[in-house]
Write a structure and sequence with these properties.
This protein is an alpha+beta fold. Helix content is about 15%, strand content about 30%. It contains two helices and five strands.
Length: about 110
């Protein structure tokens, strides 16, 4: 297994709100993309439970699309969310990337 890639982000929002943005269809649809790329809400499927599947279609400016899919591996609101993610839903689950979000400490107050 290769070494994980760690990306750290700080959000000016409660942990619960950030966690929910990953598992609430309307919120996920709103942020998963860019200004030029969108994820229509009607393409999003989320069975938010351990072992449940999720999928989304990302619409590209050139008219193309990217199919995303995965499975929820860990759910512990708001502390931990782990899910697999692939842009090749037809590939074996063992070849999918795994994404994990963890709780963080509160930012220090100024």
């Amino acid at each position: 297994m290769s070494e994980p890639i760690v990306i750290t982000r700080t959000f000016a929002a409660p942990r619960e709100r950030v966690f929910d943005a990953w598992i609430t269809p309307a919120d996920f649809s709103a942020w998963f993309g860019t200004a030029a790329v969108d994820v229509p809400l009607d393409t999003l499927r989320m069975d938010v439970r351990v072992g449940g599947a999720w999928s989304a279609v990302m619409r590209l400016p050139d008219g193309g699309s990217i199919d995303w899919a995965g499975e929820y591996v860990e759910l512990d609101r708001p502390s931990r969310l782990a899910m697999t993610m692939t842009d090749r839903p037809d590939q074996p689950a063992a070849r999918r990337s795994r994404s994990t979000s963890r709780r963080s400490r509160a930012a220090p107050r100024a």
